[in-house]
């Protein structure tokens, strides 16, 4: 099985320097917007394709790190300090001397591919003249693009060392993207010699159509004839499409197109594809189709997958240990491969959750019920005198039995986490002893210490008795106010928020949690 072991980026897009090692089967890129998930897929795609035209289509200026360019323009603009861009893919052993060598930034002998974008020294005089100009003018147009193996040999798109496919579901309705997808899938599935035979037969078919079908109308013309276009823009590969039950894929809905494209690429019959790049496969998919797609991905063998996602279901059901976390504020990836198998298995089987929000957070308050979650934003506003959405603190509701699973992640990722929970009539056992392996500078558990105040609703009632009596002691109810609150937790919390938000008192243990998490 051919695979990519590692990628190194230098001055590529948002990455000044970046390196991450890959799993040989599955890699999930999870991150904020603008964290670089798509850029990583693009980097892999560009190097494996060996296509200068891809970079020319993007524009050389678009692949350069903006900060590096600005730093150069502000630092004297010396020719010898012109930045370069490179992408290196370190491969597993290919048993191919054409890719083995030490033409890489680490100067070690191994298998790999390298893209380099650097100043064209043959045009050094012209570049220096541009740099001597007073205005800030970076010489993008004077850069040259090279694709080389680690042996030092050049390669192009006609000589591919790993067959790959990029499926960008955000561009699913783009005609060009669909055409390129079909073309790539055809190239990967056609056997040696088949492509040339197919192209030859297709050209003969066009000539036959011209001579046997168009001849009637052409015989009536004097100076001109109708013909059938046959060029690099109109040939077999540009005219091919995919169908399901004789229906063109382009006539399917967006969700169905996503599923067909991804399923076809994952299919065992597509055995010549080594690497599959999936851009947010959850786009346009229903919940049911997403689960079907996850099953397909998990059953895939013999291919290396790279997937970007914001989706909790995809992240957890495909195994969190395969995740690579990217943060928009930094360029150091975080890998979850050291997460315990027990916790990873829990999230695979657990109901839908907010795991992506949690792993991308710096500070989190975990609560165990809908009632606490509904009122937490108001509690935060009352205690901190600021709005939650500008605090960089996230409130996440999880089942009480799930707290320890999230804390496993918090310890690994160093996320400051406050747990707010009921003491369930035994504060010492449930809130102290149960979390002794976790509590520290970054993790604290907050609960009412009085075992008689064993749940959130009791604390709310005792701290806000007059408000609760006023709202819930109507004549039509036979239950006591407290019993009614205990039996209608979420509805009660919502009514308090709607009618008395500015008057409620925050229970002490929740106040302490908010004050601690803000430090």
Report on the structure:
This protein is α/β, with parallel strands linked by helices and about 525 residues long. The protein is about 40% helix and about 20% strand. The chain is built from 22 helices and 18 strands. It has helices spanning about 35-50, 50-60, 60-65, 65-75, 125-130, 175-190, 195-210, 215-220, 235-240, 255-265, 285-300, 310-315, 340-350, 355-360, 370-385, 405-415, 425-430, 455-465, 465-470, 480-485, 490-500, 510-519; strands at about 5-10, 15-20, 25-30, 85-90, 100, 110-120, 145-150, 165-170, 245, 245-250, 275-280, 305-310, 325, 335, 365, 395, 415-420, 445. Strands 1, 2, 4, 5, 6 and 7 form a 6-stranded antiparallel β-sheet that branches. A hairpin with a 2-residue loop joins strand 9 (about 245) and strand 10 (about 245-250). Helix 15 (about 370-385) packs parallel to helix 21 and helix 19 (about 465-470) packs across helix 21 (about 490-500). The longest helix is centred in the middle third of the chain and has 19 residues, at about 195-210. The chain is elongated, with a radius of gyration of 30 Å. The two termini are about 50 Å apart. The model has no long low-confidence stretch (mean pLDDT about 85).
């Amino acid at each position: 099985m051919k695979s990519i072991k590692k990628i190194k980026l230098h001055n590529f897009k948002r990455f000044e320097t970046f390196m991450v090692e890959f799993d040989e089967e599955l890699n999930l890129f999870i991150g904020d917007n603008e964290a670089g998930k798509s850029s990583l897929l693009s980097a892999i795609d560009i190097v494996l394709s060996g296509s200068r035209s891809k970079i020319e289509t993007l524009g050389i200026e678009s692949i350069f790190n903006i900060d590096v360019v600005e730093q150069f323009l502000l630092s004297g603009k010396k020719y010898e300090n012109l930045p370069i861009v490179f992408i290196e893919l370190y491969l597993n052993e290919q048993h191919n001397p054409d890719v083995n060598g030490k033409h890489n930034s680490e100067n070690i002998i191994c298998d790999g591919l390298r893209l380099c974008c650097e100043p064209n020294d043959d045009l050094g005089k012209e570049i220096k003249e541009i740099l001597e100009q007073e205005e800030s003018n970076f010489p993008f147009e004077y850069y040259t693009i090279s694709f080389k193996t680690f042996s030092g040999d050049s390669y192009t798109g006609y000589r591919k060392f790993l067959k790959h496919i990029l499926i960008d579901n955000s561009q699913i309705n783009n005609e060009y993207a669909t055409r390129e997808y079909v073309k790539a899938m055809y190239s990967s599935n056609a056997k040696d010699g088949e492509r040339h035979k197919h192209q030859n037969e297709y050209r003969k078919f066009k000539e036959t159509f011209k001579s046997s079908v168009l001849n009637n109308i052409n015989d009536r013309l004097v100076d001109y004839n109708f013909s059938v276009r046959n060029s690099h823009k109109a040939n077999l590969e540009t005219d091919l499409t995919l169908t399901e039950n004789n229906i063109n894929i382009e006539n399917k809905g967006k969700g169905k197109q996503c599923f067909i494209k991804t399923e076809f690429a994952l299919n065992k019959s597509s055995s010549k594809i080594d690497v599959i790049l999936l851009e947010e496969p959850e786009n346009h998919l229903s919940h049911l189709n997403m689960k079907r797609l996850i099953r397909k991905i998990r059953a895939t063998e013999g291919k290396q997958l790279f997937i970007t996602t914001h989706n909790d279901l995809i992240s957890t059901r495909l195994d969190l240990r395969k995740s690579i976390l990217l943060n928009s504020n930094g360029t150091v990836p975080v890998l979850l491969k050291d997460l315990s198998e027990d916790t990873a298995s829990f999230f695979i089987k657990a109901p839908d959750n907010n795991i992506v929000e949690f792993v991308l957070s710096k500070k989190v308050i975990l609560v165990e019920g809908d009632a606490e979650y509904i009122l937490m934003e108001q509690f935060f506003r009352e205690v901190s005198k600021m709005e939650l959405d500008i605090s960089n603190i996230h409130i996440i509701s999880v089942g009480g039995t799930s707290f320890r699973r999230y804390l496993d992640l918090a310890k690994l990722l160093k996320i400051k986490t406050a747990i707010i929970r009921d003491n369930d009539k035994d504060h010492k056992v449930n809130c102290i002893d149960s979390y002794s392996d976790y509590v520290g500078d970054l993790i604290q558990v907050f609960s009412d210490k009085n075992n008689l105040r064993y749940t959130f609703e009791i604390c709310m009632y005792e701290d806000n008795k007059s408000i609760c009596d006023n709202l819930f002691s109507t004549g039509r109810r036979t239950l006591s106010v407290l019993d009614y609150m205990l039996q209608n937790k979420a509805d009660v919390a919502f009514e308090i928020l709607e009618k008395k938000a500015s008057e409620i008192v925050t229970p002490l243990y929740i106040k302490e949690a908010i004050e601690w998490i803000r430090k």
